């Protein structure tokens, strides 16, 4: 399962860097719950997923992100059949950190032999960055 988790992290990183919504969507189960330090959002429709993904791309462009490096921290199988994966994200430009690394957790299910997340918990979220980019 560790390799499957690494594949999941690779896909969500690549989707962000390439702006690849279908790849991002392939790693989600709707409704997707996103919890950040300041917000709790539930994405129920394809349109909501696309809009939210667009905000992440706005962050990518505003910060000039060249590398999104996600490192596995922990993967745990829960008795209810879900998986909890925790990982650290580093965003880099010119081989330097843009922001301090941050930790996120995904609650996932295995669908067709692949991890797909139902819940994403991240103290940062894109809101702090998109608000800065708009200023």
Structure description:
With 135 residues, the chain is α+β, with helices and mostly antiparallel strands. It is 36% helix and 41% strand. The chain has helices spanning 2-18, 21-25, 46-63, 127-134; strands at residues 28-35, 40-43, 67-77, 83-93, 96-97, 102-111, 114-122. Strands 1, 2, 3, 4, 5, 6 and 7 form a 7-stranded mixed beta sheet that branches. β3 and β4 (83-93) form a beta hairpin. The radius of gyration is 14 Å and the shape is globular. 19% of the residues are buried. The model has no long low-confidence stretch (mean pLDDT 91).
- Helix/sheet category: alpha+beta
Beta-strand fraction estimate: 35-45%
Task: Compute the number of strand runs.
Answer: 7
Envelope shape: globular
Low-confidence stretches: none
What keywords describe this structure?
single chain; 135 residues; alpha+beta; 7-stranded mixed sheet; 4 helices; 36% helix; globular
Topology of helices and strands:
Layout: H1 2-18, H2 21-25, E1 28-35, E2 40-43, H3 46-63, E3 67-77, E4 83-93, E5 96-97, E6 102-111, E7 114-122, H4 127-134
Parallel strand pairs: 1-7
Antiparallel strand pairs: 1-2, 3-4, 4-5, 4-6, 6-7
Structure described in brief:
With 135 residues, the protein is an alpha+beta fold. The chain has helices spanning 2-18, 21-25, 46-63, 127-134; strands at residues 28-35, 40-43, 67-77, 83-93, 96-97, 102-111, 114-122.
């Amino acid at each position: 399962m560790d390799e499957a988790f690494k594949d999941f992290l690779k896909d969500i990183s690549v989707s962000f860097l390439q702006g690849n919504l279908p790849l991002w969507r392939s790693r989600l189960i709707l409704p997707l719950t996103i919890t950040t330090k300041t917000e709790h959002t539930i994405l129920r429709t394809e349109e909501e997923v696309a809009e939210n993904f667009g905000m992440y791309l706005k962050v990518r462009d505003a910060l000039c992100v060249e590398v999104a490096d996600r490192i596995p921290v922990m993967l745990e199988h829960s008795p209810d059949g879900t998986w909890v994966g925790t990982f650290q994200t580093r965003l880099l430009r010119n081989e330097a950190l843009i922001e301090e690394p941050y930790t996120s957790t995904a609650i996932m299910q295995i669908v067709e032999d692949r991890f797909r997340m139902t819940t994403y918990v991240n103290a940062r979220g894109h809101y702090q960055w998109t608000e800065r980019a708009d200023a």
